[in-house]
Design brief:
homodimer; about 250 residues; 8 helices; about 35% helix; about 20% strand; DNA-binding
DNA sequence: CGACGATTTGAGATCTTTCAACGTTGGTGG
DNA sequence: CCACCAACGTTGAAAGATCTCAAATCGTCG
């Protein structure tokens, strides 16, 4: 962590990087942002099912997940729910719309979750000295958009089995991102409820269960007490089913 | 247009607005960006069906539509196509991923289109003096994300009729944005092919046609020679069908 | 044990796709 | 002017995918 105390050295403003770097090009360093949230943010525990924020509220914080899983969701009057995106350990998420605008989606914990929260105001203060942070926020938004387009394509162009395979692969990779296959932390269990997966791919829980059953009968996945388990040797089969390689953005951002 | 020649006055860098404005808050002025593209960009005509850029290419320009209609699309090996977003007259679009990264979607003209194209390099040069441009790019990205989430919800949670109604309303509003109802330019015809609408809502053209037929029988829309026509008095019915008011983000960005 | 939430199963209803054929339109060349 | 062609829209019927409903099972927690 090398950002400076913003109150002591405002003259540094003149030495900030030139505008060519403050921009949609170049590479962004998301780890610095994570570090800031980790050191400056407040830690909180949130139970499964609870909301970090709800659609219609004004989101004034940015979050870093330490453990657990959070999803962006949108709810409608009739009670339907669409899962828009998943976030796992080490993910940063927030609603980055203009301040004081209510957000159009909720952030809901799919597992018991521990997260650090830093107010946008604090981040803005820190960014006075290190405006590279805005590049990182850009990068975050690009990731969101990329995932959204992937999901749109997945739901719009494909049938149930492929949708399920794609989402399972995505979740699998999300939970095991940066973890060595031989590591004890590497886990083939998918700790997400079937209901949540169903809401992510636009399918009924009942029908999802049928699809899972057929995948189990084909030997691609295991199911123990309702928990999906993907053997490391079978993940390749799943990826073939959904043409996972087509989704280059996945490889780019996770 | 008030941006200055970037080569003459680099000392202006020190007087740029402070970081609080260079940020995800505040209001953005998209009209300035449009003005820049209009004055500095090159005009080109593109036929219906042609691509402005294709997935896998590196996008090095930013575009402003003068007339016509462009869609972001994603194609897969089997020939399926998903329409991700629509852009109309006065819309600005581009792929804002980091430079030299290939884009993951295509921009395809759904109508004969006239557009101004400005290279990102030029924009960057101009932004040296007016870094507020980056705020506008942020705003653009937020619009894309918001639309993507709307579409995800629309496709994931709803049946054919509602999906069609929503997309028709969106296109209708898109083409008539900023045009007075009594104006001669106000047009109740939807000049988009049924095939393109079908690809946007994840439905077969044949089935879309059935849905349109039933909407016609209910008196909600007219169809002349394959062209959909929405009477100004009936648009409210369509909006009721799809609960259009739920999608607050639409009202916010169009 | 009892209550609750989640998963599982089966069967029928409904939605959506596929296939195949036909109609219309607009452009092109003779 | 006409014949022809390609692209798009339209229609009907059967096949397939998905949903709904209802009931059973299972695991967890108090």
């Amino acid at each position: 962590m090398h950002y400076q105390n913003p109150t002591t050295n405002l003259s540094n403003l003149a030495s900030r990087p030139d505008a060519r770097q403050l921009d949609f090009s170049g590479s962004w360093d998301i780890d610095s942002l994570k570090q800031i949230i980790l050191e400056e943010g407040l830690r909180s525990s949130i139970q499964r099912g609870k909301f970090v924020f709800r659609q219609g509220e004004v989101v004034d914080k940015i979050y870093l997940i330490q453990s657990g899983c959070v999803a962006f969701t949108r709810h409608c009057a009739e009670g339907h729910r669409q899962v828009l995106d998943f976030f796992y350990r080490e993910s940063v998420f927030s609603d980055l719309t203009e301040d004081s605008r209510p957000t159009t989606f909720s952030a809901q914990c799919l597992l018991d979750t521990q997260a650090y929260a830093l107010s946008k105001a604090s981040l803005r203060r820190i960014a006075t000295i290190t405006p590279e942070i805005f590049q990182t926020l850009n990068s975050l938004m690009l990731r969101l958009l990329s995932q959204a387009y992937d999901s749109l394509y997945n739901i719009g162009c494909r049938h149930g089995v492929e949708r399920v395979a794609f989402t399972l692969c995505k979740i699998f990779d999300g939970f095991n991102a940066g973890i060595d296959v031989d590591s004890a932390r590497f886990d083939c269990n998918i700790p997400i409820r079937q209901i949540d997966i169903a809401d992510a791919i636009g399918v009924t829980p009942v029908y999802l269960n049928q699809i899972l059953k057929s995948l189990k009968e084909d030997g691609v996945i295991d199911i123990n007490k309702g928990t999906i388990n993907i053997n490391i040797n079978n993940i390749k089969i799943l990826k073939d089913i959904c043409n996972y390689e087509e989704f280059s953005s996945i490889k780019r951002f996770i």
